[in-house]
Amino acid sequence: MKSYGFEKISIVGLGYIGLPTAAMFAARRKKVIGVDVNPCAVDTINAGRIHIVEPELDILVQSVVTKGYLRAVTKPEPADAYVIAVPTPFKGDNHQPDLSFVQAASESIAPLLERGNLVILESTSPVGTTEKMVEWLAAARPDLVFPSEGCEHCDVNVAYCPERVLPGQVVRELVANDRIIGGVTQACSQRAAALYRIFVEGDLLITSARTAEMAKLTENAFRDVNIAFANELSVIAEKLGIDVWELIRLANRHPRVNILQPGCGVGGHCIAVDPWFIVDSAPDEAKLIRCAREVNDNKPKEVIRRVMEARNKVTAERPGMNTSDVCVALLGLTFKPNVDDMRESPAASIARQLMAMPDVQLRLVDPFVTTPPPDLAEAALVSLDDALQEADVVVTLVKHDAFAGLPAKVLSRHTMIDAVGLMQPA
Hints:
By secondary structure, this protein is α/β, with parallel strands linked by helices. It is built from 14 helices and 15 strands. It is 39% helix and 14% strand.
């Protein structure tokens, strides 16, 4: 593949995807300028440390910073290629995509663009966002020619190249996984592919920008629908007095059935968010995708209902005890096991909703959360041992390895709500 001489690469957004990506380029001895609006994150990275939890990333960042290949700043600097990896949250209460961070990042690099540069959007985005980014760049730099469909000539190449990695395995999967390369034109795709080939060992799959945007959303919507089936099944089984874990084990013995494990909802910035981008783009057509999102968004309410029932059960079994005396321990706050990521976490949502209810005593346990977010700061964050000593009701919300093998003699004193199958056989 032709070399395009990417000697200086700028990564805009140093979060869960941007920082590992910056470290990967830097590990291949490319000069990398990481940009983030958070000065604390910038200072932490420049000190050779990381502000997130991701296995192996701390060693990698320390190495590339020490060797001078990675430097973090709060304002963009000139580079050969710019990779935008900023958040794309919701705005309002109707799950509308908020592209303000993408627009701000685009406009921040626009004054620095030169002929021959490459701009890549990695942020998970609704279909058509890359085209909007081209419009923002073109409006800011009318002196440059930007790509458009059917016109190969341009001064600056633009592409959409989504990440598809699993938190906790990002360092490995960034290198090993196949990568979708969605250029605005074929020439843009070829330049973007050349950039990622610096460290990607998986296949580089060339397509259009719009198809790449939809592919990313489709991957997570597919997973969301499958999880919704398991979560809905768990609610039905609870109503019918059936052990959902045994039910799924038996059903999965069918050679063509593979039901996922239910949980307390769906979290993370991808699966809990991306399907809504499809619904927003095609609200009349995305019926199943919308329904799956609603099923998963409602699962925390079902867990809370069971907590309330458990409190009543405890008071019924212990004369003289009021529901306000019942202590509830929630095991897990992050959106998935063995990470510190709380984005869109259903476990954290359950904690917030219980905190807002009168006379609910809570104990929060999570070995990966050292400081709870401000809206959970009033609840007691305690060790697992302390929680089991104090609690009457224990609710498992995340399958952290640290929770495996909870002592049966201790749990026999508690009313258990196992929302994630932690207590089930392997």
